[in-house]
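the two lines:
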Amino acid sequence: MIKQLTIIGVGLIGGSLARALKRAGAVDEVVGAGRDAQHLQQALSLGVVDRIETDLAVAVQGADIVVVATPVGATETVFRSIAPGLSADTILTDVGSTKASVVAAAQAAFGQLPENFVPAHPIAGTEKSGVEASFAELFEGRRIILTPTENSAPQAITRVRAMWEQTGAKVVETGVEHHDDVLAATSHLPHLLAFSLVDTLAQLDAKQEVFEYAAGGFRDFTRIASSDPEVWHDICLHNSSALLKMLERFEADLDKLRQAITDNDSDYLLQVFRRAKAARDQFCGD
Amino acid sequence: MIKQLTIIGVGLIGGSLARALKRAGAVDEVVGAGRDAQHLQQALSLGVVDRIETDLAVAVQGADIVVVATPVGATETVFRSIAPGLSADTILTDVGSTKASVVAAAQAAFGQLPENFVPAHPIAGTEKSGVEASFAELFEGRRIILTPTENSAPQAITRVRAMWEQTGAKVVETGVEHHDDVLAATSHLPHLLAFSLVDTLAQLDAKQEVFEYAAGGFRDFTRIASSDPEVWHDICLHNSSALLKMLERFEADLDKLRQAITDNDSDYLLQVFRRAKAARDQFCGD
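prediction for all of em together
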């Protein structure tokens, strides 16, 4: 049982974690913290948190576990703000989509990697954002990736793992760099492509018609372009080296397809499309 | 009322059209035609068509309306095959995703553009294919784009329009070239990008893990990569000039985003992402 859980940044992820743990009866008190009092008040009204606090150092006092759930660009500032309020026993974790940058932020803010610090990333979310979009079932059956540092204490890892298991998620562990490479491929690059395509189309003269004639496939393909621009801006800049590596690979492959279309190279096109369909059908199912 | 409707190519689109018209009581007899007798037999067993025929010239005999619903690469061959069986009264239409190529196929096969020929394209579909995936509601509320040629007779356009309205679709008319430009942007390019991305990821060493860690956003984004490779191969090659034009524009914009990430140009990234989200939220809603 968690006596006091402090969540800094009560949005889609932070709010859903609070709801899931409350539903599971796994937490006594959830403290919602952040800079925006009005936003916190909304979380309180919705019953997502039990108490709110805009002074982050105060918010973490007495907490068993502190979860930083702000956009990753704010992580270092948040770590610096909470440092005075953390006790030696407090477990510290986060939900950031980029892990190397979060580890670097901890190193910078605390001067070392705390034993009780366990970086984490729930592979869950929707294109919606804000506490009003949060729901208790968000993490059910989803993966939570822990990327413990060399300093993370086994009991801290166990606590963070146990917390996430209460949400119905499956918890796995991997290395920081590997996490960032895999997520660049499956999440960061697709978001970049979706934002980029929609923006390209929005610049066309026939913009209105283009979107009117867009069928279901286009809606699915571009849904992630409705995600929070600031969150994804942060992610792209905080995982830039892995993202650029994947982007370059993608652009090289896309160039080959462009050349094949230019050359009317039927075989190449068919080969790529068949391989892609087979891979997606095999791994994604629906 | 359509006395005899002949559908050449009874897959997702052809099959769904047959089902929708039967449900509306708008057709007496549907003849399913194609090369593959086993496939036609399945359509017959499912009750999607009333009679089947592998000789295309025979299949169109006595038809009020003939709908060509094969992949666009087969259109010219099909037109040549049915030519001997068409009467002066038979209305001819198609469902191809590329219209300039279909018009060129008609010109080549018939030596001129027939008065009773009305090119059409239903903006509907799923990533599934085959008659077993067809359903009567596929076209409800969707747009059907007619691109009449300069030879298309008004009464032929009226018949094709009326047929599609019976499926619950909204029928609009536009020019061939404009259709191909708009569809390159909203459909052909997204499919190409989805196939390309999934194939790039499928070549990674961490392939298995990459797909395992892919969340809901990735599934939506890549769903169209499960589409029929042959159909999309045909579309890319038969609308290559419009597609290449859009692809080049997209690649140029993506290069700018890559440069912005390289330069840590926060403002540019945020501006593009915000503009994209605003456009998608405005036009697509969900």
